[in-house]
Design goal:
The structure is a single chain. With 242 residues, the chain is of the alpha/beta class. Helices cover 37% and strands 21% of the residues. β6 (118-122), α6 (131-137) and β7 form a beta-alpha-beta unit. α1 (8-17) runs parallel beside α2 and α5 (101-114) packs parallel to α9. The protein starts with a strand and ends with a helix.
């Protein structure tokens, strides 16, 4: 099974990760960036196909491709067991019904940057790993396991059995994220763009916290909140709580 990723940055990241079957490049591009992709493809011994813009439009399936598309072998999604095997202090991200693929992609990118071991999403009523999500993730969709589960609450219970502490972000809760101990094995749980955490999901968290909001707005975009929470976990794990 194969899939595609489009755009200069995403294609270069995919080449670095490996598994690329072919690179499709606008034959009319002779600039420095196009030459860099040609050189990278040659170095990686990947087939380079010079083609028209119309052919790239079809390959990219509506995504803005900037003149380059990579075709690669789609990875098999890991299970929680595979993702956490041998991990001493797991950091997991759970997204409860994030529906915008751009938000999913941005969350994957933050998860990769912060060193999360996997991202878990429900099978129903949530964005999947579309080409738009992959492009926004800029390569992170292939480095962070995205695990789809049919029953999110059951998965949360299984994580608890593994010793993970489940911390949900809820706008109305009084405790601050910065007061939570994120040095222990933990799963950060965030809700969807409109309603936030569902009631049952929130009830299965061990702790609910919020981000301090000091301005006029009452909440942040889910991908922004995800990045803040993941990097706070990373800060605590590398520097200790101040």
């Amino acid at each position: 099974m194969s899939t595609t990723v489009a755009g200069w940055h995403a294609v270069e990241a995919r080449l670095a990760a490996g598994g690329v079957l072919s690179i499709h490049l606008d034959a009319g591009r002779q600039d420095r960036r196009a030459q860099r992709v040609r050189d990278l493809a040659r170095h990686a011994q990947v087939e380079l196909v010079e083609c028209s813009g119309a052919e790239l439009d079809v390959l990219a399936d509506g995504v803005r491709h900037q003149g380059v598309v990579a075709v690669f072998a789609a990875p098999v999604a890991a299970s929680v067991d595979e993702a956490l095997a041998g991990v001493g202090c797991p950091l997991v991200l759970i997204l409860d019904g994030v529906e915008d693929p751009r938000n999913l992609g941005a969350c994957l990118r933050s998860a990769d940057g912060a060193g999360a071991h996997c991202v878990i999403v429900p099978r129903r009523r949530a964005a999947g790993l579309t080409e738009v999500a992959r492009k926004t993730a800029a390569g992170a969709a292939d480095s962070v396991p995205l695990i789809t589960v049919s029953n999110l609450v059951r998965c949360m219970d299984d994580l608890k059995q593994r010793g993970l502490w489940l911390i949900g972000l809820a706008d109305t809760h009084g405790a601050s994220l910065y007061q939570a101990d994120l040095r222990r094995p933990a799963a950060l749980v965030l809700g969807n763009e409109g309603q936030g955490l569902r009631r049952l999901t929130a009830e299965h968290c061990d702790e609910l916290v919020s981000l301090p909001m000091r301005g006029a707005v009452s909440s942040l975009n889910v991908s922004v909140a995800t990045g803040i929470a993941l990097y706070e976990a990373g800060r605590q794990r590398t520097m200790g709580v101040e």
